Amino acid sequence: MARQHALGFHSITDEVARELSVNGTVPDWLSGSLVRNGPGAFELGGRSVDHWFDGLAMLHRYTFDDGVTYRNRFLRTEAYAAARAGEFDGGFATGETTLRQRLKSFVLDDPYDNANVIAERVGERYLALTETPRWVAFDPETLETRGHVRYDGPEPSGRLACAHMNRDPATDQMVNFEVAFGPTSQYHVYAMSTPTERDHVGSVSVEEPAYMHSFALTPNYVVLTEFPFVVDPMAFLRPGKQGPFVDNFEWKPERGTRFLVLDRASGDLVAEPRTEPFFGFHHANAYEDGDELVLDLETVPDPSAIDSLYLDGLRSGDLDALGGRLERFRVDPASPAVDRTELYRGTALPTVSPARWCREHRYVYAQGTDLPVTEWPGSVVKIDAETGDTATFGDPDDHYSEPIFVPRPAGTREDDGVVLVVALDDAAERSDLLVLDGESLSELARARLPHAIPFDFHGRFFPELT
Ligand SMILES: [Fe+2]
User: Fold this and answer.
1) In whole numbers, what is the pLDDT of the chain averaged over residues?
2) Angle at 334 between CA 331 and CA 340, to 5 degrees
3) Which of 240, 318, 399, 407 is the most exposed place for a label (fewest CB within 10 A)?
4) Among 298, 307, 313, 380, which Cα is nearest to 344's?
């Protein structure tokens, strides 16, 4: 029988700042902060959201600097204020309002600001992000909210923004895309040195825009993996239709999945090969191998995963949507063929060393799950894409967040560093921050956190935040 998973989808309301007690030894070289983002509360003001993706954004900062400190804070957004007043009903998949109200709250005048997906640095500013182009700035020291940031310049922009920007290590710019809706809709790709200045890279016109949660960046190309989960933009904008935002998207497997390959220098769409239909949320990394583009991507057969992430199901142990496959796609812009290889089965939230972004990587770190999933991810897995070898770490009582690899600054091997992961211990009703060895995944240190942290989404390690 599936285990109950109410813990992990619970709400916390306390905001703390404290030093943590540590068992084991944190490597001397480890300095900086992991900032994680995700839902901190699902109930507030007497109402509850329906979907995991709609929990109220909470930032958690884990700092390594002569000891380990922790602090957490809700983003003080309009969504947060509305929730406290008992009025929260906006979001990704929560709510019964009309589509016009939905669009108004999600993508139109003042887009939905519950930025609970990830935190990124863009230029000198730190932003919490969701899938609208209305970002929420925060103070990286105190985690206090510092208002909204929106691009308001002459370059093309859209109503939906990808939450998973890609940093170009060569320029430190953030590359991203937005979706503009209309009789002909467009994906606009751009690069930013600061949140309010952008260079237009290129645009692709489409009849029916797809839901794409992330994309791939290489030194010379942007690749939008366009799953056949699409919306009719005019129906989307028509008044009177009912339902949450995501319910307006439709699975059309006959379209297949299309890789839109944009040349970053010219902005031209240089290839658009199609392969069989599949769906996915996260690209782990991408790189160029000769004339080929290599994309490692977490896939699931179709977007029924989204339906399975409603809280009722998750809390009662219906977790099957959480497990996917790590697959490698090879796209040659000169060929219509797409090569597809499974690297690992039973995984979620794949990441690579930030030192390998846009470059060839060998190792992928991810949550490990059984398929079909009967438990929240119960392990951390390291996948060697070259040999197929794996290493795992896991305690049967614990459930793990997305793992974040931090390279040792003087290291030469790709896996010379540590993996930071938050473990939730069901039985003890407590979370720990774990420091694992990047090569073996053995435990180096464990810091006890003051509360059990609900399952969150994504983190970034910022070496400059000490
Ligand atoms: Fe994500």
Assistant:
1) 89
2) 20
3) 240
4) 298
Question: How far does Cα 327 stand from its chain's mean position?
Answer: 17
Residues 366-377 pLDDT 10s: 999 877 666 667
Q: 408 alpha carbon to ligand 1 midpoint, in Å? A: 25
Q: How far apart are CA 86 and CA 89, in angstroms?
A: 9
CA of 350 to the centre of ligand 1 (A): 10
Residue 451 DSSP symbol: S
CA of 349 to the centre of ligand 1 (A): 7
**Ligand 1 mean position, distance from CA 240 (Å):** 30
What pLDDT, on a 0 to 100 scale, did the predictor assign at position 446?
A: 97
In degrees to the nearest 10, what's the CA dihedral of 249, 251, 255, 261? Answer: 60
User: From ligand 1's centre to the CA of 458, what distance in Å?
Assistant: 7
The stretch 252-280 carries a mean pLDDT of 97
Q: Alpha helix (H) ranges present in 55-205?
A: 78-84, 99-106
- Alpha carbons 30 and 447: distance in angstroms, whole number: 14
Q: Each residue of 388-422: pLDDT tens digit?
A: 999 999 987 899 999 999 999 999 999 999 999 99
Counting Cβ atoms within 10 Å, is residue 443 exposed (0-12), middle (13-18) or buried (19+)? middle
Distance 257 CA to ligand 1 centre (A): 19
- Residue 418 Cα to ligand 1 middle (Å): 22
Q: How far is the centre of ligand 1, averaged over its atoms, from the C-alpha of 38 (Å)?
A: 10
CA of 320 to the centre of ligand 1 (A): 17
Percent above pLDDT 70 for the chain: 86
% of the chain at pLDDT higher than 90: 70
Tell me, in angstroms, the distance from the centre of ligand 1 to residue 212's CA: 10
Give the integer Cα–Cα distance in Å for 343 and 299.
Answer: 11
Instruction: Tell me the average pLDDT across 50-60.
Output: 86
- CA–centroid distance, residue 225 to ligand 1 (Å): 14
Q: What amino acid occupies position 192? A: M
Distance 118 CA to ligand 1 centre (A): 7
pLDDT per position as a tens digit, 179-200: 998 889 999 999 999 999 999 9
Domains of the chain: 17-462 (2.130.10.10)
Cα 246 to ligand 1 centroid, rounded to whole Å: 15
pLDDT category, 236, cuts 50, 70, 90?
A: low
What is the distance, to the nearest Å, from the Cα of residue 304 to the centroid of all Cα atoms in its chain? 18
